[in-house]
Amino acid sequence: MKTMNNNLIYCKYLKKYAPKQNYQIFSNKIGKRLYEEISQEAWEIWLKKQTKIINEQKLNMTILQDRKKLEKHMLNFFFGK
Fold this sequence. Notes:
Layout: E1 8-11, E2 16-19, H1 29-37, H2 40-56, H3 64-79
Antiparallel strand pairs: 1-2
Helix pairs in contact: 2-3
């Protein structure tokens, strides 16, 4: 019987087993879900996409409304919500 490496998770974005993130990025329910369901590789893909969104939509991360907008993009990117 093949055992699973403790460093691997089933990434819901990539739809395959991949190395998990090194640590939980956010200390809330969304952060817990991202840590448990999204691999490091998928997170790195998101970071590139996130940069494009911030620049194209001229979001200011010091403004709560803009951070909420980016969070919605992130949830949609990973989970289709």
